[in-house]
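WARN  no MSA supplied for this record, continuing single-sequence
INFO  ligand: magnesium ion
INFO  echoing inputs
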Amino acid sequence: MTLRAFEATDAPLISARGLTKRFGDFVAVDGIDLDVHRGEAFGFLGPNGAGKSSTMRMIGCVSPPSDGSLRILGLDPGADGSRIRSRLGVVPQRDTLDEELTVRENILVYGRYFGLSKAVVRERAAELLEFAQLADRADSVVEPLSGGMKRRLTIARSLVNEPELLLLDEPTTGLDPQARHVLWDRLFRLKRSGVTLVLTTHYMDEAEQLCDRLVVMDGGAIVAEGSPRQLIAEHSTREVLELRFAVDDHAPYQAKVADLARRIEVLPDRLLLYVDDGDAAAAAVHDRGLTPLSVLVRRSTLEDVFLHLTGRTLID
Ligand SMILES: Nc1ncnc2c1ncn2[C@@H]1O[C@H](COP(=O)(O)OP(=O)(O)O)[C@@H](O)[C@H]1O
Ligand SMILES: [Mg+2]
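INFO  complex generated
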């Protein structure tokens, strides 16, 4: 009987209770609870400094928890770190490619760390380069490649051991919109093929695109948890009316329109009115003789959820 047969298939792949990371007196991760289940795409959404990477490094078994309990694939990272790591794929926040080697060599070298035979690694490298749309660059050195290509190579490399669980720390930060969409498409495919994805991001659109379920993190703590749709339903309204007036300070306008909205946010350059019907609210603003420079009606996003929960925007 194989070891895997002992594990209940519906047990969470990741289970954390009171998970804490301290650096000296500083608490980077402040007692978080979470469960990630097989086959889901799970996200940590939060601004810089929220504690996302510190959490990911504990899950990746490269940084020991300061407190709390953590089980990965049913195992204890303290006792079984290397066994767990052999079944994970890891895409760290910063690429750690060997820039002087070729694209293909980066995968070959990495595959050998896992003790895979040369023949197996060669075969997988060819498939992974195809998957990452890098087959035509297989024999180029890494250094001159674009950021998007390097990121795809890091993902291809992380898959060489056929991991059940793939950890991605800010997979698309710093990439242009087109490169991000190519990456998202590859991650969708992985998800469809049954790989459990755990990712961090400070982009609300990335979280909405990729995550079945996510936690919103701020200051080391989880401030909300749910699917993107649930989070928006729970913490925001259906629509948002954005009003921009030809003034430097939008605060004085707040009182003039506050009764039209369930909630209002004053940003330096605009007012956000949280409403069920944006067009109706815009008409009411107009009826009051107010003349905004611009009027925009849009759906609520996770950015609105974050603003509501923390009073701050995700990207400052
Ligand atoms: N090795 C470290 N030593 C001291 N402080 C750290 C270390 N790593 C992270 N921190 C601090 O912990 C907090 C959370 O960092 P991090 O987990 O990297 O957040 P995020 O990935 O969400 O941006 C930050 O304030 C950061 O400065
Ligand atoms: Mg980080």
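The radius of gyration is 23 Å.
INFO  checksum written, moving to next record
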